[in-house]
């Protein structure tokens, strides 16, 4: 619609049906709102997915409103419309008998009620019948991170390269449509890559196994592990939340030669020397947040030399470090 389509006009009934409208500009309709002359509005069979909340007083004062057959996205942005239609239904029911002879129809037939096109859980449901519990307002919130090193064991090997595997888990709170993903990048500033193999273990909770080639110390080889950063990202209609998990992998001492009498490789696990018996621990004192009681970080470890830290989108940090 042209920005001045309704300037200096007095309109009591307006029909914009089957016009292919994808959006409705509040500024275009402002002259009609100010004139208080419009009583009937038909917007049936267009391509409207949402409506500006500023239309609420405008719609509330109409005698007749039809919004049927539009592919509405029933997210938090449309909560106001559900409440407005509910108020109109109650008001029209109260006024039905006094206005029985009026030529204006105060209550829209059920077949002409606007319904939700998405999300899938609300598809086909009348907007007027939605409750507060059907809407999820506000961005998602990160609730917990867990790093499990308990299965990380390295057996004796004649090679310098060994692979370590740990499990990382992320939990966030949001709408049923919230998406959770893990990204991986190194500390050198490389582009993050999405981690494959994600497993959803519960609503709003995902986990993934990560592996890394562990280098053994050797006096003839200079090795340096700059570490990696893993980002859990929760995406929702109203925003996103994220937490960074920083891991610095260990450089392992070369194993001692195995006794010739050894028969079981399962028992030949590399153990830390007495001077390196440091294990991961968590320190909640480093976490600064106004929702500390709702964020939880857990480290499960029996492996030395690993350093881990967590950073939320608020730049708060929680460290798990060697002590």
From TrEMBL:
Keyword field: Leucine-rich repeat, Repeat, Signal
Organism: Hydatigena taeniaeformis (Feline tapeworm)
Protein's recorded name: Ig-like domain-containing protein
CC terms in the record's Gene Ontology section: plasma membrane
Bias (Low complexity): 259-269
Annotated stretches, region: Disordered: 256-284
Coiled-coil ranges from the UniProt annotation: none
Domain of life according to the entry: Eukaryota
InterPro entries with a match to the protein in the record: Cys-rich_flank_reg_C, Ig-like_dom, Ig-like_dom_sf, LRR_dom_sf, LRR_TM_domain-containing
Segments forming domain Ig-like: 140-246
